[in-house]
Amino acid sequence: xxxxxxxxxxxxxxxxxxxxxxxxxxxxxxxxxxxxxxxxxxxxxxxxxxxxxxxxxxxxxxxxxxxxxxxxxxxxxxxxxxxxxxxxxxxxxxxxxxxxxxxxxxxxxxxxxxxx
Length: 116
Fold this sequence. Notes:
Blueprint: H1 3-11, E1 16-21, E2 25-30, E3 33-39, E4 47-50, H2 56-60, E5 65-67, E6 76-79, H3 87-102, H4 107-112
Antiparallel strand pairs: 1-2, 2-3, 3-4, 4-6, 5-6
Helix pairs in contact: 1-3
């Protein structure tokens, strides 16, 4: 896996935007809310994403994972090396994170983004 593959997975979903934040992070958002962040200019490349409440503890304890700094209270995890997961796993967790964030957007905004 590389950042370009993660980018492709994220950008396939409707209403997604991307931007560079904090000078070195590639951030993917839906309706202005982040759902995946990949670190740029670092080796190995790390990434963070939101997981379901009931799987947060388990995933946080997988080798190479930990609660994401600053956003762990919102059930975000950090993978220290994006190569630790297969493409199919990335597709699952990115889509899940996208849906978790999208589902909390106001109905009006989801309609504006053609997500309803």
